[in-house]
# Entry
Amino acid sequence: MTAVATRVVSASRRQRSSRRLLVELARYTVLTAVALLWLIPFLWIIITSLKPLEQVFARPPKWIPEPILWRNYIDALTNPGFNFPRLLWNSVFYSGLSTIGIAASCALVAYGFARMRFWGRDFWFLVMLATMMLPGVVTMIPTYVLFRVIGWVGGYAPLIVPSFFGYAFYIFLLRQFFLNLPWELTESAKVDGAGDLRIFLSIMLPLVRPALMVTVVFNFLGCWNDFMGPLIYLSDSSKFPLSLGLYAFQTKYQRAWNLMMAASLVVTIPMMILFFAAQRQFIEGITITGLKG
# Structure
């Protein structure tokens, strides 16, 4: 009886192991297929950027360029219609200042909502969350009129200054992190004579670095790809960021898709570098955010 029971248990374990293996195989097959579908447009951009112009519209399409023209990248970046160094500096300036403003303001406001007690705290937090329900298109015209009255239209101020007043989603995200930190840290620091600002800068802020990194990467990526904001507020082409400069290049050279794809690929490279450089903390922040809710 013991030998029979052992064989039954062993067979049952093998069946469970086989089912688990099949489930894992199916899961990875689906994930691989989705990854390939996502990569096809990116591969098409790379291939098109290396083609001669006459092969871009060839039928049937050619997946391997003949010859491979690396010079397309030089032609795109040195094209007078696409002043890459100036556009790159404008994008770094706009995205960098905006991200600094968002990180500083959102961390301060989130710390106040999470760790400080004042009258109406929860009410004002709900009011702030309610602003997330307003679509951007609803506030676009009133915001433009306000900035035009102030005299900011035509410069970077409408794009950068609002960042220093926080953003509801990032405040909510950081507040959840601050709430999960032990109160004993704050109390022991106050016993040692530390004020709120010292506690925030020296103790709390380093502990929410994963969430802060998520905020920085998301906001920098959003500003880097922002098209509507610069389109509305900027009229001087010397102030255009890469997103708007790429659009101006496309409207001027409508058929030069090989140069257009080369320029587009170059525009994405800084974001890829940023993501891989901050990948560990970014993934950690995303994971902890999902766990802490």
Observations:
- Residues 2-49 form the longest helix (48 residues).
- Residues 80-292 form a domain with the MetI-like fold fold (CATH 1.10.3720.10).
